[in-house]
Amino acid sequence: MTNPGLEGVVVADTQISEVDGERGRLVIAGADVEQLAGAATFEATARRVLAAGGADPVVATPIDNAAFGAARAAAWELLPRLGDALDHADAMDALRTGLAHLRPGPTDAGGDLAAAMSAIGAAPVVVAAWSRRRAGQAPVAPDPALGHAADYLRMTLGRPGDAASVRALDAYLVTVIDHAMCASTFTARVIASTASDLISALVGAVGALKGPLHGGAPGPVLDMLDAIGAPDRAEAWLLGELAAGRRIMGMGHRVYRVRDPRAAVLEEAVRPLASPRLELARAVERAAAKILHERKPDRPLAANVEFYTAVLLDAVGLPREQFSATFAVSRVAGWAAHVLEQRRTGRLIRPASRYIGAMP
Ligand code: COA
After folding, report:
1. What pLDDT, in 10s, does the model give residues 333-352?
2. N or C, where is the chain less crowded by C-beta within 10 Å?
3. 249 alpha carbon to ligand 1 midpoint, in Å?
4. How far is the CA of 296 from the centre of ligand 1 (A)?
5. Side by side, which strands form the sheet with 31-32?
6. Ligand 1 proximity of 251 Cβ (cutoff 6 Å)
7. Predicted pLDDT at 217
8. Would you please indicate which residues are annotated as catalytic (active-site) residues?
9. CA-CA distance, 252 to 29, in Å (whole number)?
10. Is 248 in the pocket of ligand 1 (CB under 6 A)?
């Protein structure tokens, strides 16, 4: 079997992405992730996954870059009606509440795609506004003429990001746009499979992504790098974590048995930013891989996507509290693509449980 993590359960056929856990390969709708990151924009990659999910035949007018800008502008209009959504302490809760305000529309192909675009536009606007509010600053209106990555960074920082940071953030958004049947995508597909609406599917997916075993790790990875501070302290610190029964954040994966290919892509994408944390991160990764190998020689545990996500998002200037929600800013496109595909080709997902309780 290609993916040991699948444990024999295949719940969908998909054209959106494929993870080869043995070889460490991620294919996104026909292209290797290494081909796309740094070469394609988030918008182009979102179109790619939405088309793979089945958006193409229903799109009367193509989803051009202006459609992404228009979706962000529409979300800006929504902000004053979000109640206290932006007061949540956790950005993922703010995003979940913000997305829940979107109108689902009809559950046909046109309605789903319209809802998908509204969510893709809303995610960066809500997350950036949450971040600014947390810092005691007024939200910044989107500029529909900018690219998605550039505008998200600008709305967060309150000034345009430099070109290298925008490129790195765009590469990040492309890299994490989809990853086969991960927990949050499965959640979205289960909800869609009941013929519920796309927005409900995305809200559920945000809840699944929030957990530190899935998308919640990059903030803690940065905390770890801060706590370690210098390469020669890595080993002792990591051993202390394991002795305390804690896991090393950013290491290990359910499907990959080699280093997550996205770790290499993001490590490369962050290089032009000359982050002071990059060298430390590399040293910590080496130490963690060595220690985990000694502890678990039979279970390869290598860096996953979150390890260099932390370094990259920090280097472009995003606060760590915003990292998981930034993952969602991208993944919302992948989730939406899966909802479209589930509608076209799937049926009710209804797994089984094994009863081990007492009989009457
Ligand atoms: N640090 C220390 N030990 C780890 C570990 C880590 N990051 N990841 C796995 N292990 C250990 C487990 O404790 C387990 O040991 P045990 O058999 O003695 O209990 C063994 O390796 C197998 O782990 P398992 O729980 O079967 O792996 P999984 O497939 O359920 O877990 C993750 C996958 C991603 C949840 C897990 O590797 C993890 O928690 N990583 C840290 C969080 C993280 O980076 N999440 C982002 C994922 S993209």
Report:
1. 999 999 999 999 989 999 99
2. C
3. 9
4. 11
5. 17-20, 25-28, 31-32
6. yes
7. 87
8. 253, 306
9. 25
10. yes
**CA pair distance 65, 121, nearest whole angstrom:** 11
C-alpha–C-alpha distance, residues 315 and 270, integer Å:
7
Indicate whether residue 26 lines ligand 1 (CB < 6 A): no
What pLDDT, on the 0 to 100 scale, is given for residue 1?
40
Low-confidence ranges of the chain (pLDDT < 50): 1, 5-6
Cα 250 to averaged position of ligand 1 atoms, centre (Å): 10
Instruction: Return the exposure string of 179-206: e unless at least 16 CB atoms fall within 10 Å of the residue's CB, then b.
Output: bbbbebbbbbbbbbbeeebbbbbbbbbb
CA 153 to chain centre: 16
Distance 245 CA to ligand 1 centre (A): 12
Ligand 1 atom nearest 242 alpha carbon? 2
219 CB-near residues (< 8 Å, 6+ apart): 310, 320, 321, 323, 324
Q: Name the superfamily (CATH) of residues 35-205+327-345.
A: Citrate Synthase, domain 1 (1.10.580.10)
What is the pLDDT, as a whole number, of residue 346? 85
| CB 254 near ligand 1, within 6 Å | yes
Q: For the whole model, what pTM was predicted? A: 0.95
Domain ranges of the chain: 35-205+327-345, 218-315
From the CA of 250, give the closest atom in ligand 1: 44
Task: Find, among 10, 350, 56, the residue nearest to 193 by Cα.
Answer: 350
